[in-house]
Design goal:
Layout (H helix, E strand, L loop, with lengths): L7 H12 L3 H9 L3 H15 L5 H5 L4 H8 L13 H5 L25
């Protein structure tokens, strides 16, 4: 079975398990100045393991997404919504359809009748 055929969440979990005890990779991640540098290291590790993860899949799938937020010192909550970002984003961990635009229009919210 090819690892690239697994769902994104299982491939990310395989990457996380592979990072456990990988001293050089963990040191490289610790030296990264921001989330983008972390993504570069993680993409390299993914390609060496044959997981075929993309940058978008890594930055939108937990727990890697949370590591990047932490490294960038971004809050996991947005003031006013009291929802974790993963619930606000929607669709994380799912592959992006081919030809889909990078920026999606903002969702409209129903405020209620009262």
């Amino acid at each position: 079975m090819d690892l690239k055929d697994l769902p994104v969440t299982q491939r990310v979990n395989a990457l996380v398990k592979a990072l456990d005890g990988a001293q050089r990779t963990n040191e490289a991640l610790a030296r990264c100045g921001d989330g983008e540098a972390m993504l570069d290291v993680l993409l390299d590790a993914s390609s060496r393991l044959g997981l075929g993860l993309t940058r978008w899949e890594l930055e939108n799938t937990p727990p890697i997404r949370d590591w990047i937020w932490w490294k960038n010192k971004e809050a996991p909550l947005t003031i006013g919504d009291s929802k974790p970002r993963y619930q606000q984003d929607g669709g994380q961990g799912k592959p992006r359809p081919e030809g889909s635009p990078e920026e999606e229009p903002p969702r409209r919210r129903f405020l209620g009748l009262f």
